[in-house]
Amino acid sequence: MAFTEKETELINKLKDDVINYKVEDAKKHAQEAVNAKVDAYTMTMEGLAGGMAVVSEKFDSHEYFVPETLLCAKALYAALDILKPHIKMQKGAVRGQVVLGVLQGDVHDLGKNLIKAVFEAAGWTVHDLGRDVPLQKFVDEQMRTDSDIVMLSALMTTSMVGMKKVIPMIREKNPNVKIMIGGAPISEKTVEEFGADSTADNAPNALQEAIHMVDVLKKGEMTAK
To answer: Could you give the domains of the chain?
Structure first.
């Protein structure tokens, strides 16, 4: 996608603000984007989410640790609060509902919060269960909301085993629901072993995976009719 000179400038500024946790600058540049009437969704996905993708890499390589990453997230949310009211959804864009939470025994919710921010910015309805969530609650919330996707997060191997238990519980109630799992210990092998549908290494990629899964669901419903 080609961007104007102004868009490129603001994307780079917002990305830098997130990476270097400059909260006030993030607010200033988000407002500058609104005033310049550039596309707020582009600023969110390319600038803010793009910055967090770099932060995730820094976290994985141990260049950043939890305190820095939390500050980066603070800059992201500060800018998102300004941009979000101005986001216009593209006609025909795929959107859906997700149930999202960190499994019981795990309180590491930074990744979950980033997923929530990016999905909400894209116009999805997010039912956020929070952290340290009992397994049955995922089942109950999916049934209550009839959400298209259940997203399970775990940062520790000890809490990750809960995914293997809860995925069959969810599928027993709704065989058609899509399940995405994520967190540091999760790999493609884990997806296959646990019977999930997908994983993603960052929030923007998770959104693209979710869009694809909901598109498949909707096409399946149309075929059934």
So the answer is: 5-86 (1.10.1240.10), 97-224 (3.40.50.280)
Q: What DSSP character marks residue 67?
A: H
DSSP code of 181? E
Query: Which DSSP symbol is given to 198?
Result: B
27-44 pLDDT per residue, tens: 999 999 999 999 998 998
What is the spatial distance between Cα 120 and Cα 117, in angstroms, rounded to a whole number?
A: 5
Instruction: Give 224's contacts (C-beta < 8 A, 6+ positions apart).
Output: none
Residue 99, strand partner residues = 127, 150
Q: Please write the tens of the pLDDT for every residue from 181-209.
A: 998 889 999 999 999 999 988 777 888 89
Q: In what order do the strands lie in the sheet with 178-182?
A: 125-133, 97-103, 149-153, 178-182
Q: Is 6 helix (H, G, I), strand (E, B) or coil?
A: helix
Output the CA–CA distances (angstroms, integers) from residue 36 to 11, 30, 184, in the order listed. Answer: 13, 10, 38
> Dihedral through CA 118, CA 120, CA 124, CA 127, nearest 10?
110
